[in-house]
Amino acid sequence: MQKLTGVLVSRNKEYIIFYRGNDFVTPKVRKVLVEQQQHAITQQEQEELARLKASDSITPIPKALKNPLVAGTLAETREATSRWGDSLNDELRKKENNCLILAKHTSLLKNMKRKLILAKTKVAKAEMALAKVQEYLSPAELPTDLETVTDEERFLFRRIGLKMKAFLMLGRREVFDGTVQNMHFHWKHRELVKIVVKGKTFEQVKHIAISLEAESGGVLIALDKTTKGYSITFYRGKNYKRPQVLKPRNLLTRRRAMARSIELQRREALNHHISVLRHKIWKLKSQLVRQFISDFIEFNFSMLALLDDALHLCYHHQVQMRAAGRKQDAELLQTVEDDLSSDDDNIQDEGDEAYLQTYGSDDEDDADDDSNEYL
């Protein structure tokens, strides 16, 4: 049965479970599928035979090439060089890299300037929203007739406040009407109330303590730094009377205090973002200035090198001209001397010939005279 049906899953005394499998097909469907597959194979074979016969009957005529092949030849190289220019050397590659770096820094600088302008507009919007929320806040001033507490009482209240387990946690909303209400709830059962502040500096905690003292009417006992944060202890006073309205009307509500906290956080984050952007812009500008100075110095050096080469060429040309002039002068002098020497030789030859002629004529005359006398 396992060979006929499928996979044996489990068996028991009462029943046996077989799994037919994912590829289970009934015999009729299997027969139809096999027939269709054989028909498709035979049809493909017939199409392949027809294609082979048609390809054998057609003889391709190769087209004659109009132009000779120039791939990989010197003519192709020269044509590519004339069209696309010479290959990049180290100097050109360095210049291209410098141009790319300069373009990249310029685009980054423009992008950062755009971000800086956008951040400034967001800061202005945050300032407007914060001012709109602060319109509902009118903080109270410190009373002039504060209840006096002696040093012994202050020391005792401070120790009791640090040991107190019940405390109020001042959150991101800081001072609002609910904070003063919770202080009055604590003062209903005890004389002291301890407020814990986290994530603030000492100056901020001091400002919060002064504002709470003015709004609640209690006496500030101590401001201490603990492991949980800053601890502020308030004393309700000896003549404490619970007010009828526990939430002061001059403070912000819970929702408005949350909105003020969000706007303050947004403004602080934007100011930090602006400072970071300004620092990055300053760095990019300094890099651009250094790049410009280096390019300017390199250009000046190249110009000086070209000027030096030109001066050397002029000097060599002048030296050659002087040498050529001296050579021409020497040749001219030599020709003049040769002419003069040739003239002197001609004059000397003519003198000698004249002397010889005169001497010969004298001798002949003397001889004639002698002969005449002899005769």
From TrEMBL:
InterPro entries: CRS1/CFM2/CFM3 (IPR045278), RNA-binding_CRM (IPR001890), YhbY-like_sf (IPR035920)
Ranges for domain CRM: 147-247
Compartment list: Plastid, Chloroplast
Chief localization: plastid
Keyword Protein transport part of the UniProt annotation: no
Superkingdom of the source species: Eukaryota
Keywords linked to the UniProt accession: Chloroplast, mRNA processing, mRNA splicing, Plastid, Repeat, Ribonucleoprotein, RNA-binding, Transit peptide
Assigned GO CC terms: chloroplast; ribonucleoprotein complex
PROSITE patterns: CRM (PS51295)
Listed name of the protein: CRM domain-containing protein
Organism field: Aegilops tauschii subsp. strangulata
